[in-house]
Amino acid sequence: xxxxxxxxxxxxxxxxxxxxxxxxxxxxxxxxxxxxxxxxxxxxxxxxxxxxxxxxxxxxxxxxxxxxxxxxxxxxxxxxxxxxxxxxxxxxxxxxxxxxxxxxxxxxxxxxxxxxxxxxxxxxxxxxxxxxxxxxxxxxxxxxxxxxxxxxxxxxxxxxxxxxxxxxxxxxxxxxxxxxxxxxxxxxxxxxxxxxxxxxxxxxxxxxxxxxxxxxxxxxxxxxxxxxxxxxxxxxxxxxxxxxxxxxxxxxxxxxxxxxxxxxxxxxxxxxxxxxxxxxxxxxx
Amino acid sequence: xxxxxxxxxxxxxxxxxxxxxxxxxxxxxxxxxxxxxxxxxxxxxxxxxxxxxxxxxxxxxxxxxxxxxxxxxxxxxxxxxxxxxxxxxxxxxxxxxxxxxxxxxxxxxxxxxxxxxxxxxxxxxxxxxxxxxxxxxxxxxxxxxxxxxxxxxxxxxxxxxxxxxxxxxxxxxxxxxxxxxxxxxxxxxxxxxxxxxxxxxxxxxxxxxxxxxxxxxxxxxxxxxxxxxxxxxxxxxxxxxxxxxxxxxxxxxxxxxxxxxxxxxxxxxxxxxxxxxxxxxxxxxxxxxxxxxxxxxxxxxxxx
Amino acid sequence: xxxxxxxxxxxxxxxxxxxxxxxxxxxxxxxxxxxxxxxxxxxxxxxxxxxxxxxxxxxxxxxxxxxxxxxxxxxxxxxxxxxxxxxxxxxxxxxxxxxxxxxxxxxxxxxxxxxxxxxxxxxxxxxxxxxxxxxxxxxxxxxxxxxxxxxxxxxxxxxxxxxxxxxxxxxxxxxxxxxxxxxxxxxxxxxxxxxxxxxxxxxxxxxxxxxxxxxxxxxxxxxxxxxxxxxxxxxxxxxxxxxxxxxxxxxxxxxxxxxxxxxxxxxxxxxxxxxxxxxxxxxxxxxxxxxxxxxxxxxxxxxxxxxxxxxxxxxxxxxxxxxxxxxxxxxxxxxxxxxxxxxxxxxxxxxxxxxxxxxxxxxxxxxxxxxxxxxxxxxxxxxxxxxxxxxxxxxxxxxxxxxxxxxxxxxxxxxxxxxxxxxxxxxxxxxxxxxxxxxxxxxxxxxxxxxx
Lengths: 285, 304, 452
Known about the structure:
The structure holds 3 protein chains of 3 kinds. Chain A is mainly α. Chain A is 75% helix and 0% strand. Chain A has helices spanning 2-42, 46-49, 64-72, 75-106, 112-124, 127-140, 148-151, 159-170, 174-182, 187-198, 200-216, 219-224, 233-237, 248-269, 271-284. Mean pLDDT of chain A is 87; it is low at 276-285. Chain B is mostly helical. Chain B has a single domain (68-295), classed as MetI-like fold, CATH 1.10.3720.10. Chain B is built from 14 helices and no strands. In chain B, α3 packs across α8. Chain C has 2 domains: 56-173 and 335-404, CATH 3.40.190.10; 175-238 and 253-334, CATH 3.40.190.10. In chain C, the strands form 5 sheets. Chain C has a 6-stranded mixed beta sheet with strand order 2-1-3-13-6-14. Chain C has a 3-stranded antiparallel beta sheet with strand order 10-7-11. In chain C, β4 (160-161) and β5 (164-165) form a beta hairpin. In chain C, α10 (229-237) crosses α11 and α19 (415-426) packs antiparallel against α20. The longest helix of chain C has 31 residues, at 2-32. The chains are: A mainly alpha, B mainly alpha, C alpha+beta. Chains in contact: A-B, A-C, B-C. The B-C interface holds B 47-51, 62, 66, 68-69, 72, 126, 129-130, 132-137, 152, 154-157, 240-241, 243-244, 246-248, 251, 259-260, 262-265 and C 101-102, 105, 108-109, 126-127, 130-132, 228, 271-272, 275-276, 278-280, 282-285, 343, 412-413, 415-417, 419-420, 423-424, 427, 429, 442, 445, 449.
């Protein structure tokens, strides 16, 4: 009887796995369409793009679009600039927010709830009413035309990520913290040696989010950088947009190249999802 | 004894403040000033470059009595938020559950499913204009297969907002990632013992997965509510000329605010609009927080 | 923890090495361009100009021209200017379209604006009203030549605020009717005589429509492709919606007639046909006129460059936009850009020299010849070489009756009240009379509340 039970479960599991695979595959095809459209446009000639009805795949493949697009503006330089901003942004976001979020989730202090409300409140005010005063502020600090307005603020936390870390820390049992405290550990120790390893999936998520945020940010760099050599990729992409005619083939070629690192980073970082699982489970067991 | 506990408490307090210090410094240095400035600005006729005279509640009065577009934009934004928030939340949970299965190629699937949320810019909007095209677009072609004649989407004022919501549904990859991360924290033993009890997939989802991810659901609800009220880009780009779409059906609150601030240079008025939005969203968030105690389960919470 | 540390360490190493490389670069750049405090710089300039010619005044010039077609032209113009004298050095910075205005505004607010910028000609007065740009009167007064005579008169009008100039017109455009000669011949119309009035336009369009199996496969003409309903309303009587004194002309017999004409057109073709065609070509890629799906279209004059590049097989003609009735005038509409000095710029005298150069006949002819753009300078536009291009010739002719619609100071955002009403009428959700009546009163209220 026990045997039959397991066998039928096994079959059932396999069946559900197949169903899930089919759904995922069908979904992927829909989701990959824009990518296909981007890549196929990037390989067409402008003449073909202007054709009606539009062609589904390039009838004549123009690899040189990629090279020409890349040389329209100093894109290599822009890539380095963007990477620099991203690196600081990721490091700052991961460090500061995991730290601050811990304070809000696991330490009792007076005014904690009030401060947390203030954190949430800063998220609610639409960014562009503070855009001008903030620019004036950074200008007074002498930070305009430097990367500082883009790379320093991440080290002071962002409301979204603080809230996110807080929520995840809250799912971790308090007994763990208490036990460590009895062993004489202070909160810094607990945060770094106990908590961080347990929230690895969250660290990976924040790393991914903040990387993408910095990578795709247009208005920040645009506002604060005055020197074209300091520009970022997203500003560079704007070169292809004309008032009269957009150069779709170049725009799509460059957009594809700009998208690749983002997907690579995601592909690499997601292994921490799997790792986090085992560790947490082990701790709790 | 008493002194000892109080000194422990004190040490705890100090550590707490040290932990939030980075945020506090950032808040005071970078955020507080501009925030207070915009609060004061909302009571003036501030135009950024040459005027900032105190005019009392004039901006607020004008908003409620003399600006028909204020109400249009508020309606559009509420419409969007009411549908978008629950739909994207459900969508990303569903996606996360699927991607949390141990099937081959998960890493590739995860990357693919996450991709739409990083794709940005014109490529996406151009693509959606094609998908939503009434005659030959993919969506209406699919609907025709099941015998439904689809609407004209972006050309019909009644369907522009649903079109934007569908678009948003497509890029729930960010939310999916959060749920996926939180599902990794659920001890596998829970599922194993449920298996032994003969629980089916739905039961496991309903009684193990769902309760364990409520803190993240709560986070997602709060942040997408806040984000939803700030919708701007979509209305701007999809309405082609950036003027709010057919019959202003895509004139969202922030788009109207942007126009007032950067087209009309009536920055004082825009700041007043921002603070009204702030009050609305703050009330909704507070309600959210209040009722969350009934359904959000914190393993490490304070049980208060 | 160890396995977590590794990527973090790699990240940090990457970060450090990158910042070192870039710090090196940006330092060297910074030392190239020291930004001296304003007054000190000027003093230096005056003293130094006499003995060392190297001390030049450096000007920052911003525009949104960054594409491979526009950028080389503007850069050549600048390097010509830099080479023509030895006291001013202009540096060009590309700032993307749209965001350039936000950046400019923030920079003005911080007291740190560029020295010259290309901005929308329609909002020069509106910005002057907020003190965002520099009054050019003192510099114009010193000139022996009358600078305003350079420009098409309506463009000069557009840069005035309280009768004083706050920018110099740079370029403009106008709408023209493009027609497909082959289609005309095919249906028995004279390929050389395009429609002159709305009635003719409709008559020809009906002949040019092609229907197969109850579905339109070709449309002769649809007024709202290429331009908006507001342009037809302007075309009907040649009057702007709001005049300088704040009088509103929305609910007028001519404008009602224009909108009714459009609504009839839409009713004749049907919503479905119109939407389907519009959606196919909404992506700004394939073009309905080039692909032969539409036989006549009112388009911006520089549609010509697209025809030249992607429509080599299309045999087309260009003419003025048809008039409502004979004698009402072939009114067209144009936009354009002006070059201005943001308020608070550090070297207005030198900036003025530069923008004066940009609008002078040499620079303007160069821009016109390479960009095939309608320039603000009349003499440059009438250059014989340009006149030999058919489209350009017709466009210059059209300039006589091309309206510029400067943003009214009293109601800068009136269009947000007008457009939804026009949409409602076109979509059949309201009658034309009701819609325009509502728009008229909404806009009058806006003007009233702003005039207070």
